[in-house]
Amino acid sequence: MKKVKIITDSCCSFSAEKLKEMDIDFVQMSFSIDNEEFNAFEHPIKNAQIFYDELAKSKSCSTSCINPYTFTATFEKYVKLGFDVVYIGISGGMSATYNNALISAKEINATYGQRVFIANSLSGSYGIALMLEYAVKLRNVGKTAEEIFRAIDKNGMNVFAVFVPSDLKFLNRSGRISKFVASIGSLLKVTPVIMADAHGELKLLAKCIGRKKAIKTIQNFILEKGNLESESRIYIGHTGVKEDAEEFAEFIKGNSNVKEIIVDTIDYTMGCNCGPYTLAVFGKLK
Asked: 242 lies in a domain?
C-alpha cells in the first residue's frame, strides 16, 4: 500500500506549526494590503487582533490564488517519494485555486498514473480544518488516498460554514458580492448572514437589521440544523471579535451536548476576504 500525503492551503486557518504536527504539508496563498504583498504565514504582525484592527483601516485589500506551477512542484515532490497525494483546500466556488490544483493533478496523473486526488471542500477556514482532522484519522488507520478523497470530495462530510461580516466592503473587494449589494446593505444598515452553499459559493442566508439579530439567526440555524451530539466538534472563528466568539461558544455549551467547541482566529488570507470583525461558525449538519 502506498503512503499517503495530505496537502492543504493556507485558507484552512490552522497555523503552519499545527499542520506540521498533523504531518500535513501546505501551499501558501498571498494577499495584498494597500499594495504591499505578503505570503499567508509570513505577515510581520503576529497578533491577530492588531492585524485585524489595522486591516479595518486599509484602503485596499486583495488575495491571490495559488498557480498550477506551485501545485505541480509540491505534488510531484511527494509522488516521486512514493506517496499518493490528497489535496483538501479552499472551495472551488470561492477561488480559482481549486481549478489550478486540478490542472496540476491532471498533468501529474498523465505521467505517473492516478496518484493525486483533488477534493473540493466546498468550504473555507475551519470548515477545511474539520475535513483535515478527519482525513488524518483516515490516513492513520490505513485508508488510501482515493478513499480519503471520496469521503471528503464535494463535502461528503456535510460540513457547514456560516458567518456574519462586519463590513460588506471586504466581500465586495474580493468579488464575493456585487458593489450594488454592498452599497444597499450599507445604506439600509443591513447585517447579512452568509453561508457556503451546495456549490461552495457564498450565498445570503438572511438579511437582518443589526448584528445582534444576525447572530441570533446563526444561533437558530445551529439549533435547527447543526449536529449537536456529544461526539461533534464545532469551530467558532473570528477576525478580531473574541468576545462575540466566546459568547457564542457559551450559547452552544448551554444548548447542546457538543464534545468540543474551539474558539480561534481566522487565518489572514480568509480574513482579507470576509473582513475584520467577522464571526463565523463551522460544524456538521444533521
From this structure: yes
